[in-house]
Design a protein that fits this description.
mainly alpha, about 75% helix, about 0% strand
C-alpha cells in the first residue's frame, strides 16, 4: 500500500501540535486519531447490529437478563448459604 501525504494548513498543524504529546510526532498523533475514529465507528456498528439481533431474538435478551442477575463469585457462595 503506498504512503499518502496529507497536507494541513498551518492553523491545523498548530492545533495538532498543542494537542499531541511532546514526544509524539504530528503524523503519529493524526494516525492515532484516525485509528481511534475507525474503531469507534466499528464499535457503533457492532452495537447497532447486536441491538438489532436482540430485537429479532427476544429469547436472547431474556437469557442475557437472567445471566446478568445470576450470582457470581462471592455472591454465589452467599446464595448457597442462604438456601
Amino acid at each position: 500500500m503506498p504512503a499518502t501525504t496529507i497536507k494541513l494548513e498551518h492553523e491545523w498543524v498548530s492545533k495538532v501540535a498543542k494537542l499531541k504529546a511532546k514526544d509524539e510526532s504530528v503524523s503519529a498523533f493524526v494516525r492515532s486519531l484516525i485509528e481511534r475514529e475507525h474503531q469507534e465507528r466499528l464499535n457503533r456498528l457492532a452495537a447497532l447490529k447486536y441491538n438489532q439481533f436482540l430485537d429479532e431474538h427476544p429469547e436472547e435478551l431474556a437469557a442475557m437478563e437472567d445471566w446478568e442477575g445470576a450470582p457470581l463469585g462471592s455472591d454465589l457462595q452467599a446464595a448457597k448459604d442462604a438456601k
